[in-house]
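pasting input
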Amino acid sequence: MNGAQDLGGQHGMGPVAPEKDEPIFHADWEKRALGLTLSCGAFGAWTIDESRHARESLAPATYLSASYYEIWTRALETLLQRHGFVSSDEISQGRMLEKGRKPKRILTADRVAAVLATGGPCDRPAPAEPAFAVGERVRTKNFHPQTHTRLPRYARAKIGVIEAVQGSFVFPDDNAHGKGENPQWVYTVVFDAPEIWGEGADPSLTVSIDAWESYLERP
Amino acid sequence: MTSHHHPHDDHDHHDNHFSDMQARVKALESVLTEKGLIDPAAIDAIVETYETKVGPRNGAHVVAKSWSEPEFAEWLRLDATGAIESLGYAGRQGEHMRAVFNTPETHNLVVCTLCSCYPWSVLGLPPVWYKAPPYRSRAVIDPRGVLEEFGLALGAEKKIRVWDSTAELRYIVIPERPAGTDGLGQEALAALVTRDSMIGTGVAMPPGEHAGDRP
């Protein structure tokens, strides 16, 4: 979706302002927000792609004025309601009002180390041979789905070169919406800056994205 | 945004936002605990992991080993996930690793324009600026300007390659080994490797300084 999350190339966001001696967390609630997001993710009720879509579906003004842990928290509230674990009244009152759904798994403290050490690999057996080869010129598609996609706007309808065939991975555009994992080949595609940014672009700059096969076509 | 630690910004508004979040997260944790859906001790364990076990010293170890052992560097190039796992660093947000090597000709810079993808297993949790709109918007269109804000001025002849982490691959930059470090062992080398040098917003430090003094 063409939401506020798709930031590449936007102007007016200000200086980066790296902090000196930045702490890992800036407040206790950030620690709890991290832990809640991971604990609820471990239910197995939604995928990382659905989580990302919930975050980018926040209203643009909210998204752009929120810290990332706030974005996570707001999206988590959406996901918990959508999947029937808590109601909006329960969230606003901070207490149980009804029974609600039980998850397949609950992350207990003794399992944390193992769960974090395993992670969630999303490579999958390939359905076919890769359609494109290293060194081949490709064009990214021009599309603007209202649903989830990982092809940024700045890299749509652009000509680049396949630099690497990275393996076969879960296709987020489908998986975010419960349509299955439908794995596809992922390629690293490199663009010269003038192809993306046109006049005045830095000629010493190249930018790459990692693109699923269905994002690409022959030019 | 992050303005609660930039007092020159509109901090009243953001301070309010900030305490709202404290209440909001507390309410959510309370109801989830009451319903038996989460274990608060699991949250403590997650936080402790990223405060004490998983952070940029992991990545610095990877870099120092690749500087010292050409076979390890080659393994990193071909199979970064496996090479990094051999040092005990694996798991969440490090499942599919790629190592990209700076050279005298090319400087690498990593960003996630669409969200906050970051190689947790080797660098820990991302800094606030990495997840915020200024970096995510500008890294792909004005990397030289961004690097100058980090105090890094690259020569005009140096090429820049920006890696936008749009899929599940997670990138670590292997900075160039600083001059004058021939006699140093891996531990001393690792001390020169800053977090930012592994994102590409910095370079490794010259001998005599210490990465602990810089992000």
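fyi The CA atoms of residues 128 and 184 of chain A lie 9 Å apart.
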